[in-house]
Specification:
Number of domains: 1
Number of strands: 17
CATH superfamily: Divalent-metal-dependent TIM barrel enzymes
Strand content: 15-25%
Shape: globular
Distance between the termini: 34 Å
Number of helices: 11
Order of helices and strands: HEEHHEEEHEEEHEHEHEEHEHEEEHEH
Strand order of the largest sheet: 6-3-2-17-14-13-10-9
Mean pLDDT: 90
CATH architecture: Alpha-Beta Barrel
Oligomer: single chain
Low-confidence stretches: 10-37
Radius of gyration: 18 Å
Helix content: 25-40%
Structural class: alpha/beta
Length: 311
Amino acid sequence: MQTSRRNFLKKGAFAMAGATILSNKILASATGNFSSHFPDDHVGLQLYSVRTDMSKDPLATLKQVAGIGYKYVEHASYMNRKFYNYSPTEFKKVLDDLGLKMISGHTVLGNKAWDEATHQFTDEWKHTVEDAATVGQEYVISPWLDESYRKDYDGLLRFLDVFNKSGELCKSHGMKFGYHNHNFEFSTTLNNMKLYDIILQHTDPKLVAQQLDIGNMYGAGGRADEIIKQYPGRFELMHVKDEIKSAKSEMGDGYESTILGAGVVGTKEIADLGRKTGGTRQFIVEQESYQDKTPIEAAKEDYEIMKKWGY
């Protein structure tokens, strides 16, 4: 049975609370009108899109990804100080040899990353940051929030301060910390506020970037265009995704991802809005379900669509 993204992250969070980091070549948010081509836009692939292939043969899979035309990737596998079973220096060489750069990566910043007694990050989290810097990342993205923080407003605020502290730690390594949403941030409220509003209002945008996943939120009622308008300039990264109704439902809310432009999200319009007023420069393609295609076929078609759209 295919492992869902939710279960994949939960297992990773319980196994260790390490996090992936990206380096801090942070681009200023854009708020004006621009031409159709942006030299500083980065179109990448979240490697969870080809997770089965990566687990079998990461080198061969990365060669295929590079062959499609992708220049940037985002990881979803960092454990025991290794990326897809490569050390940071080994993996950087693999990427360099293929003309790829890993701008960002996903590893959960969990409660085990922070020592409440000493008010310090654990060595495990410090190593996570160091390794992300070594491999050349610009952002560390945590894609999960432990369920305990979704029930306790004061506890959540304390942990969001840890987010800011992680931003300071990442900054000291030339990177920036970030958070990636799923769907619970839009379906769960504390003190009559959606979790996502609490997260954005209690994290310092100079220290904590937001990676807006425009598909994950859809089944929970989140609409990315409305969020970008509510918080202009806050979304340095975007997971470019589209959704269709499905009984399989990756998020348990009646939707699964599909080829860009084939679903209900309004992907191109949202990407364009992110580019224009959201501060978005990192556009990371992610497709977790493929209908009648292979993961690599889907990644290729998505890339060609992004090029057609002017990215």
